[in-house]
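We emphasize that the prediction below concerns an isolated chain of 293 residues; any contacts that depend on oligomerization or on bound cofactors are therefore not represented. The input was used exactly as deposited, without trimming of termini.
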Amino acid sequence: MNSSLIESGAAGFALQGVSVAFGAQRVLQGLDWSPPSGQVVGLLGRNGAGKTTLIEALLGLREPDAGHALLFGHPALALGDDARARIGYVPQRSDLFEWLTADQLLAYFRSFYPRWNTAKVDGLMSRWDIARDKPIGKLSGGQQQRLSIVRALAHEPELLVLDEPVASLDPAGRRDFLSELVDQVIDRRTTIVFSTHILSDLERVALDVAFLTGGKIALHAPLDELLESSVRLGGVPADVQRFVAQHGLEAISRAAGVPVIARGRDAAAMPRPTPTVSVDPVTLEDLFLALTA
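Result of the prediction step, given as a token string:
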């Protein structure tokens, strides 16, 4: 394990050369990833791209076939209690103990964490209208999802990993949750990895986005910079290719044909359209479709 991986993992997490296969199907292939700490990073990929597998490898919940994962400078597969207490995780499927009440569940998990913000828990439980004395199995899907989020935030983690955390929430619930994420970053400089298929949610909170495709991170960049420095090109394919070359652009689309998504070196001097080539601003959806084809 090299020193650069150890240094990058000390402040958050790092993956190097991580490969995972299920039988003959390769899901992650020599994946490297070490995002900056203290911000929200959106993890994007098509269904089946391996987002959950990546998260499980990152957290030491799945041993990779090759490569390493570090959390706070320690091997993810051999984390001590102190390091684990710095991590919050909301899985795609709730892993709550459905026979307990919400209060019993929170009391159980509070015993594992030296740092537990009771005021935050009480505020979220009240604001999100989660019954504290009802068996968790009798709560709605949205309430169970909210409770899972409360549990993950209660000990004020330094790294918060969210795997499709808002799938069961209505728009109002998603808005409240996203506001809580922003406050978490502002107040505590928490590093948040947010995997979701709801692109509009990511646009509200993510500072960086990472696109997972072909078993690797195809691109990781600040979202605002990516939107400002990219264009959507349409027209005759041969003309578009010449246009890209003439203007020193980098075509980043994985799919063949048009439209083509291209990046420029200078976001303030993007080229103008011609009679045969259209030039339009990109959206996060354009980037998602182009980079995860």
